[in-house]
């Protein structure tokens, strides 16, 4: 049974409004590369657990820009569309026997092919048309000609105010029960709503728990401890086995989160978007400072404009 609360947020906000099976839709953009297939497999298993429909999106792109040679562009695009249709049909057949874990029937998968817009506009368009509450993408792959796009595409979709929450899945991630959901938080005004959303998600997995993790620096330590105390009071009726508040000191946010994930096995890392630059730095940092949580743990990003 989904988590129920007497608090005001659960029945009226983002995730809870979408809690009925008929309203839940997960959008999964695929380009048929191994990383995007890994994200698709993860999304299918997740959908089986929470009872969602999967919208399978492929964006056909010609490898040659129309301005270079229009007629050749049209011919190549037609080829890509036909290949895309065939591959989507193959996926539908491959996953046709998947069922929802609650016994309610076969997993519903809807294929969608777009070719008139670019990748990002197409994802935004389809997310709106199907009222998706989540976009699941990989963190590497999504190639178009010689350019590797998915890292940047994922960052752009995270930053977009036209898309819902995003689950970014590493290429080697395998779906397992979400036992520990870590919310890397910064005392946002939305925190209470986010915690309710995460408790709702955790309720689909037996013995799952949510860790509210705040990384503080020496300058803000006293103020942050006070904030954490007041937030714990709000959720005083939720047992520690379901919701735990963690306070760690580190001058570097990335290093603080990474250190926590090294010490506590984590199923998914949750963040709340605040501004575009933060997520650009998250996805586009140099190889010299690659933080392990960027590539090893699925990242679930909630949008401030949707909760």
Explain the layout of strands and helices.
Blueprint: H1 14-17, E1 25-29, H2 34-50, E2 53-59, H3 70-94, E3 109-114, H4 119-129, E4 134-138, E5 143-144, E6 147-148, H5 150-159, E7 165-169, E8 180-185, H6 191-202, E9 209-216, H7 221-234, E10 243-249, H8 253-263, E11 268-272, H9 276-283, H10 293-296, E12 299-302
Parallel strand pairs: 1-2, 1-4, 2-3, 4-7, 8-9, 8-11, 9-10, 11-12
Antiparallel strand pairs: 5-6, 7-12
Helix pairs in contact: 5-9
Helix/strand/pairing class, anyone? alpha/beta
**What kind of sheet is the major sheet?**
10 strands, mixed
State the end-to-end CA separation. Answer: 22 Å
Largest sheet strand order: 3-2-1-4-7-12-11-8-9-10
Number of domains: 2
Task: Describe the fold and architecture.
This protein is α/β, with parallel strands linked by helices and 307 residues long. It folds into 2 domains: 24-169, 3-Layer(aba) Sandwich (Rossmann fold), CATH 3.40.50.620; 180-306, Rossmann fold. It is 38% helix and 20% strand. The protein has 10 helices and 12 strands. It has helices at 14-17, 34-50, 70-94, 119-129, 150-159, 191-202, 221-234, 253-263, 276-283, 293-296; strands spanning 25-29, 53-59, 109-114, 134-138, 143-144, 147-148, 165-169, 180-185, 209-216, 243-249, 268-272, 299-302. The strands form 2 sheets. Strands 3-2-1-4-7-12-11-8-9-10 form a 10-stranded mixed sheet, sandwiched between helices. The chain has a two-stranded antiparallel ribbon with strand order 5-6. Helix 3 (70-94) links the parallel strand 2 and strand 3 (109-114). Helix 5 (150-159) packs antiparallel against helix 9. The protein is globular, with a radius of gyration of 20 Å. 38% of the residues are buried.
